[in-house]
Amino acid sequence: MHRHSALRGAHVRQGIGTSGLVVHEPAIYIYPSLQGDGKFHLLPTGELLIHNLQESDESQSFRCRSMHRLTRQVVVSSPTRLRINSHRGIISPSVVEHTAHVQVSQDEGAVLLCVAQGCPSPEYSWFTHNGAGPLPVLSGPRVRLLGPILAIEAVTGEDSGVYKCTAGNVGGEASAELRLTVATPIQVEISPNVLSVHMGGTAEFRCLVTSNGSPVGMQNILWYKDGRQLPSSGRVEDTLVVPRVSRENRGMYQCVVRRPEGDTFQATAELQLGDAPPVLLYSFIEQTLQPGPAVSLKCSAAGNPTPQISWTLDGFPLPSNGRFMIGQYITVHGDVISHVNISHVMVEDGGEYACIAENRAGRVQHAARLNIYGTLYSHTHGMHSKHTDAHMRKMLMA
């Protein structure tokens, strides 16, 4: 069984390790609070403070009971008791326990603890530090002065700063400094939230971080595209630059701000491609064939919006028969690929083929001949000419 010693009339801090409740045996339950009940004060952080110790307190024992937040498993400590040392002389105060740094989020409660021992029991005073020097802390609707405890309800950013507690008696005084940090909520915005850039241009996004309307600097900023983190130099980078924009760069971008205490905030923006006229990525070449085999002509193009590809033969639409098959599909990168397959090519299939890629930003075309040995055929009149196969060879060789 453990015992804790304290001067009579002093305040004792019992560390219970984790938030929960304390059982004051035989059957009194003490729950965490900001203010306590005047005798017992279980802090939200798990410490038990006992005010105004008396001889009768030595007969009492305490148990700490905590519950795991996820598993709900309950753990109860072994009992502990107090041992009080009586002293009739004068002992100057000494601070035996204080919270050097307390960090809470805005609108939460904050407890600053400063426990001193001395004889007679010391009186406590609290001060705040600013540029003009220390100012006394006064009780108010949100502020409670509870001897060794300064409790502040619904903290704001203005409550942040350095506090000083002073414990004094006729033998002297002792003091300690405590820092309170209030993490105010931040707002994250990407400017612009929608950006349209032509292919080959430069895109630039800026991550704006504010708190209560004022800019916040030196934040840990990460950039993501479509859920994947982008490489970072390890520095604070509130601006993201995308040079030479291509199709692969379009999509959703995120600016994620992570604070040291672990909170994260994020904003999203979209990079769109501006209109871009079609550009041919691949085109077929001129061919000379004997009648009979199959032949395939292919064109591919890029642009924004994705272009449509059409085909002509000597300036006319392709023949509508079972030997001609036109196929077209779009790749994952947004390029369009179109092909013309001709089965069992014939003399009348010869001529100048053209693929035309077109969107609202413009058009581009490519043309090349498909030469088939045999009697020449006029697509304009749908008639055979009197040129012989030998004559055709001479024309091809000319």
UniProtKB/TrEMBL annotation:
GO annotations of cellular component type: membrane
Subcellular location: Membrane
Keyword Metal-binding: no
Pfam family, one: Ig_2
SUPFAM superfamilies per the UniProt record, alphabetical: Immunoglobulin
Cleaved signal peptide residues: none
Keyword tags: Cell adhesion, Disulfide bond, Immunoglobulin domain, Membrane, Repeat, Signal, Transmembrane, Transmembrane helix
SMART domains linked: IG, IGc2
Residue ranges constituting the Ig-like domain according to the UniProt record: 93-181, 185-272, 277-371
Biological-process GO terms, alphabetical: cell adhesion; neuron projection morphogenesis
Stored Gene3D superfamilies: Immunoglobulins
Highest taxon, organism lineage: Eukaryota
Main location (coarse class): membrane
Membrane topology term: Single-pass membrane protein
Keyword match DNA damage: no
PANTHER family noted in UniProt: BASIGIN RELATED, FASCICLIN-2
The protein's name: IP15636p
